[in-house]
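Retro notes, item 3 of 5
We never archived the inputs for the zinc ion complex last cycle. Fixing that now. Sequence and ligand:
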Amino acid sequence: MVFPHLVTVLVEHVVVESCVLRITASTKDGTAAVCPGCGESSKRVHSRYGRRIADAPVGARPVLIELSVRRLFCDSSGCARVTFAEQVDGLTSRYGPRTPVLQRVIGALGVVLAARAVARLGLLLGFAVSRMTVLRAVMALPEPAWTGPRVLGWTSSRPGRAAGTAPS
Ligand SMILES: [Zn+2]
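Structure as it came back at the time:
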């Protein structure tokens, strides 16, 4: 499985155009999507529209996913939204121009390299981002799990005192 994040959509075409791997796909009709306003599911389609989402490069080629997604009606009486755009887990986020996979790659590179270096490296690896995009990706990373110390103590460089023992 080359593109595990595309399992839930219908892939129509995969072509290479001008050194860009272009994937044309659409979400499936008849499946329910959850309204972000109230959490209720809906299958009633209002319309479709196209999104262009950058994905992690393959073989140093940029990957562009052209995805047709649905706008659905929310029929919940208590919800302020009349319609909402569906999101695909692992593939889209609200107003997100990149897949979560590419976003994590940019964030992980940003942790170990300077933002400007990641922006330059991205051009070689097949994704174009600004240094501000790298900084936002780093800030969006989850906080690493932190566990408190198991033992409190100190080390001494003075001879005759074992490390971690209290002074008498
Ligand atoms: Zn709703």
